[in-house]
Amino acid sequence: MVAHNAALKAEWGAARYPEATVLAADTTVCIDNQALNKPRDLAEARGMLLRLGGRTHTVFTGIAVRRRADALALDEGVASEVTFRPLDARTIDDYLARVNPLDKAGGYGIQEHGEMIVASYSGSFTNIVGLPLEATKQILTRCGYQA
Fold this sequence. Notes:
The chain is of the alpha+beta class. Helix content is 35%, strand content 29%. The chain has five helices and five strands; from the N terminus they run αββαββαβαα. β3 and β4 (72-84) form a beta hairpin. α2 (42-52) packs across α3.
């Protein structure tokens, strides 16, 4: 799903700017084979956090690069694991008072008071934030850009 969404975003941009190199990404949280995208409201965010509490989930990001001028098309996928602390209603309320969950897949941001809810993670931290910098650098290097 995230690979498909990233490719659609990159294709959209490349169609409008064919000489440009367009980088696009899409991230989601997955638990029990179900995607947790951005919550619609605080009630849904609260439900997502309750579901994630005390459990491990996967954060998936798809990255796509497109350039129409030379038919460049590259795609990359990254997965990271996140284990949440057990969460009770008070902890969730305290977290939601500090963070806007509505613009974040799974209703949380590890970079914003993540210590309140995250016990551990494995893989790319920047993937969990929303754009895996390591993979992004590699894909841009393959496109001919140097850091």
